[in-house]
Amino acid sequence: MLYMNQIVRVQPAAMKAYVERFKQVLTPLMRRYGVELVGLWQVLMANDFIDLWEVQQYADLDRLSQAMKEDAEFLAYQQQDFAQRVNWSVKLLHPTAFCPDLAQIKREQIKGGLYMLATIPIVPDRLQEYLKLFPKYGMRLEHKHGLRTLGYWHGGGTDHTEAFNCTQICVIEDWAHWARFVEGRTKDPEVAEWMNRALFYRTFHSALWMTPAYIPY
Question: What architecture is the 2-94 domain classified under in CATH?
Fold first, then answer.
């Protein structure tokens, strides 16, 4: 299993049309070749869209790549859609052992009104140890205070240094929910202990706030 993550900057006047084409045209086309949508989000107060797709195996990516060159419907979609993009980038992400798959996400209805996409660089030779510790401490404590994990992956990008990045998408209900989470976490001594311990493995992380543009479940 692997995941395809794309960030697309769309011309502001084309944003509504982009989402409609994504829903009505692109999602069924991708499903035709065995690639299922996890979600499409819009970055808060921006004209950037982030999508995430679940892919069963690399052979499916090969078939998809070929289809994008030969399938008339794909070619028509790209001709119209690419003209309204400013730029875009694609990453392949590898799920961790504790990453929910799409079936679990649907079954447990892991979704909300706000999402946070975090990129966490890990010290290279400590990655595997960190991935063993995070579900026992970091993710458990996040869930304890109401923050759910949609997914947690590693790798991605064309730069080899990104192989040691972790990517996490967290789900909350709204800003009030986030405020309660922050308050509860701040008062929890176990969280403070974990945060200090985590500094041995990671230095900083960047985060984007997103709102759902199309969640197909």
Answer: 2-Layer Sandwich (3.30)
